[in-house]
Write a structure and sequence with these properties.
The protein has 212 residues and is an alpha+beta fold. It contains 4 helices and 11 strands. A 6-stranded antiparallel beta sheet has the order 3-6-8-11-10-9, with helices on one face. Strands 1-4-5 form a 3-stranded mixed beta sheet. A two-stranded antiparallel sheet has the order 2-7.
Amino acid sequence: MTSTRRFRRQAAVVLLALTGSLALAGCRVSGTATEPTSQGSTMSTSEFSTLDAAGVDQIRATKTARLDMSSGSLQKAAVRVTEDSYGPEINTRDSGKVALTIAAPNGEITGETDRIRFKTTDKRPDFSEVTYFLTAESADEYFELIRDGVERYGIDSDSAERWISSAEADPAKKSDFSITSGTDTGLEVNYDLRYDGGKDTQVIIVHVSPAA
């Protein structure tokens, strides 16, 4: 009788141990299945910048901004601002230039800038224009920026070279001149020249908008 009780007790212990092992195995399987889902949601973070307060802070901190106009426009919802928002103005003159990249339907538009603006109305779901400022510390550097825009974006070469020739002939020249836009990227890229030969820093205001 004693042996029978001992046998039953041992069998119960073994059964309990097996049940516990299966339960633990079940927990491990469940945990393994949920981990990729959690990691996947983290890894799906967009490569593009947002323009809400947190996004602007990140642009300022990293000195990098990447905007998605590959569809032909920049949608407000995609950058986490409300439809009635006018967007921020990002000014980093006191802390250094931002490496800006705009993904276009054909290639990219890039520049080093300390000022980015957005144009829209409180009725539009998108921004009608992204504006940023390029600067040069010499006339030669300025002319190089213009020619780079001609080569990369299809800005009108004849118009650009006529203006450069006039500036070379008159080093003290003052001029506000908009070169005929280029559309090679699938967006309209306009170089608005603000030049004063008597100043140390020269400015190009770049306007990027959906192609007509």
